[in-house]
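Late entry, written up from scratch paper. The run itself happened at the end of the previous shift, but nothing got recorded in the book at the time, so transcribing now.
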Amino acid sequence: MAKTSTVKSGGPARVRLVVFDAEVPDGDFNSLAQVLQNALKTPTVIQAPRAANGSAAAKTITHQPSETVQDDEPGLFDHLEAEDAAEAASAPAKPKAARKAPKAPDIVPIEMNEPVSFADFAAGKKNDSLHKKYLIAAAWLHECRNTPIVTDGHIYTCFRSIGWSTAHNDFGQPLRELKARKFFTTPARGQYEINHIGLDYVKKLANGAE
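Output as recorded:
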């Protein structure tokens, strides 16, 4: 341990206590002396440039060893962050709501077997698409059952009567699409009336023209 003191006349005494720890080769006092000399060096004084008013201002810069901040609990926050990441990864994903299948239309009371029955009317007509089947059913209701205005329930009943597939997500969609193609008109919401364009098209299906 080395201790130096500097006393300035007319001012308070200034004491500096220096503690050092050094490893030197056995008997190498020159290295020890060099370490001691470095520890007792006086602060470096840098003179600031003279101010414009002629007065001189001196600024003393003292080089002190930087202090190292020690973490009392190393890795604490790393552990907490790892726990947060694990919780986020293990949180179950919110399940998507299952899309509810549209309800099948209700059966409409229709006499299906009196001449001309729907089965006889549909026989021989090209029905290789869903839209063609809708047109055939609507034409039969218009011409043979005096029902020009139909709903998806009328079409559904016709399909069920002769065993055509009813596995459609939305049974009214083909009617809306045929209306957009000008085969039907809509006198009211949910009601469809086949027009002469649609009726002529069904006649062509019997002749194999379409």
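Confidence is low (pLDDT under 50) at residues 1-8, 54-58, 65-69.
(Scratch paper discarded after transcription.)
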